Amino acid sequence: TRKESSAASDVYKRQVLRRLKIQTSLRPQAVEIRDIVKTWHFLRMAFAYFVMSYIGLMIVSHGATLMRELGISVKTVSLTPFTLNAGYVFGAILWGIVITRYPIKLIPVISLFISITSLCVLLTAQTATILFSAIFCIGLVFGSTVSIFVVLLSRCYGKNHAGDLFGRINIGYGLAGFIAPIVTAHLYELNGSYSLPMWTAIILSLIHI
Q1: Structural contact between residues 118 and 137, judged by C-beta atoms closer than 8 angstroms
Q2: For residue 76, what are the CA distances in angstroms to 63, 82, 121, 131, 198?
């Protein structure tokens, strides 16, 4: 009958409206980039990126001189840039695989622990093999910045925001590139060795952790 058909149609319409309301309520609220960059989580991530870049660029600019001061011969010290770059490339690939399979937010903290350990090794080690291993590990962490932050930003804030936010975070790389060589040189002149610059990098890492 017409009444039954009309009643069935009303029931169907109510079900459709109910589903639309549920779907609408489940949609994530739109978040503006300017709001994200003010959050503690994003600022902490940006600082981790800066510190990891700072340590890497400190070794890029002063690594060979540092190794000479630690007793590495002129012939062997030429391996410093190669070792650092090898670590960088390997780190970019390795951490890309790790972060894709295990998107753990603590990965930047783990990376900084590796940097701290490597810097402590440079402060205390005596043999060339161990010193170059520490340089490789610093390159490993430096290279991880290429991989882990894009994935973490995508996971935390969505793929639509990841590119824009990584651009904001990448300002830290430029800042580190400007600061690290100059600050390291000034601290070296103050102390007459690279121990003070390395302790400064360790303290920066600990501040984040």
Answers
A1: yes
A2: 12, 11, 18, 12, 22
Tokens representing 79?
Answer: 């391996």
Q: What is the pTM of this model?
A: 0.81
Task: In whole angstroms, give the CA distance from residue 128 to residue 72.
Answer: 7
- On whether the CB atoms of residues 160 and 154 are closer than 8 A, the answer is no
Q: Tokens 């610059």 sit at which residue? A: 197
Q: What sections of the chain are H helices per DSSP?
A: 2-26, 33-36, 40-69, 74-77, 79-101, 107-124, 128-144, 148-157, 159-169, 171-191, 195-208
Q: How many beta carbons lie within 10 A of that of residue 28, not counting itself?
A: 6
Q: pLDDT tens string for the chain (209 positions)?
A: 544 445 445 544 455 445 544 444 434 445 677 788 788 888 898 999 999 999 999 999 999 999 988 888 888 898 999 999 999 999 999 888 888 777 677 888 888 999 999 999 999 887 889 999 999 999 999 999 888 888 888 888 888 888 888 888 999 999 999 999 999 999 999 988 899 999 999 999 998 87
Which residue from 65, 44, 48, 55 is spatially nearest to 202, judged by alpha carbons?
55
> Of the candidates 132, 168, 157, 119, which has an alpha carbon nearest to the alpha carbon of residue 32?
157
Burial class (CB in 10 A: 0-12, 13-18, 19+), 23: exposed
